[in-house]
Amino acid sequence: MIHETAIIDGDPFWYTRDPDTGKRTLLDEPSPGVFIGEDVDIFSFAIIVRGVKRKTRVERGAKISHRAQVGHDVVIGEDTVVGCRVTVCGLSTIGKRCTLGVGAIVTPNVTVGDDCFIGAGVVVHEDLPANTKLTIRGRKQNWPDKPWEG
Question: pTM to 2 decimals?
Fold first, then answer.
């Protein structure tokens, strides 16, 4: 199921540099596009950006929640769940059977192995081996004086 408000084949944000002038310009070349596997669900306002160097791929059984963003040339593995407002930046690969919690960010060029769990709000900036659980557990703070109530 692909929700009617989802954007598939969105424009990539990719610059090229003119060898003569050195000026940067947005890429304006044919794109390899997007591959969507069988039994994939993409919910409201999700964005899947088309590939630049290779197809952006959402493999069989993957679930892309609402307002998630999947960048150019990304691979989302089979049966992976991408939570709401997750951002997977360009050129990253997410393995099979992974879960990315609400608001998680995977920075560019990162590989996440199979069967990983990335908790809500976690920023992943380096490769993760298979079977990794990565969470943030903030310390609960006691505010006896509520300075915001003032």
Answer: 0.82
